[in-house]
Amino acid sequence: MNAFFLAFAHLRWTWARSLVLVIVGALILSVPLVTQVLLRGSEEALTRRAEATPLVLGARGSQLDLVMSAVYFSQDRAQPISRAAEDAVWDSGLALPIPLHTGFQTNGARIVGTSLDYVDFRGLRIAEGRQMALLGEAVLGAQVADRLGLGPGDTVVSSPENLFDLDGVYPLELQITGVLAPTGTPDDEAVFTDVKTTWIIAGIGHGHDDVVTPDDAGNVTANAAITQFQRITPDNIDSFHFHGPSGDYPLSAVLVAPYDTRSGTILRGRYLDPENPLQMTVPAEVVAGLVDRIFRIAALLDAVTLVIGIAALGAIGLSLFLAWSLRAPEIETARRLGAGRFMILRLAFAEIALLLIVSAGIATGLVTVVTMNGDRLVAWILAL
Amino acid sequence: MLKPLACALAVLAGAATAQERPVVATVNYPLAWMADRLGGDAIEVLFPVPDGRDPSFWRPGLSDIAAIQQADLIALNGAGFATWTTRASLPRSRLVDTSAKLSAAFIATQSVSHSHGEDGAHSHTGTASYTWLDFELAAGQAEALAAAMQRRMPDLRNRVEERLPSLLADLAALDTQARDALATLQGTTIIATHPRYQYFARAYGLDIAALEWEAGALPDEAQWQDLQDMVAETGASLLIWEAEPPQEAKERAAGMGLASIVFAPLATRPASGDFASVMRAQIEALATRP
Question: Chain A: residue nearest B115 by CA?
Answer without folding.
Answer: A221
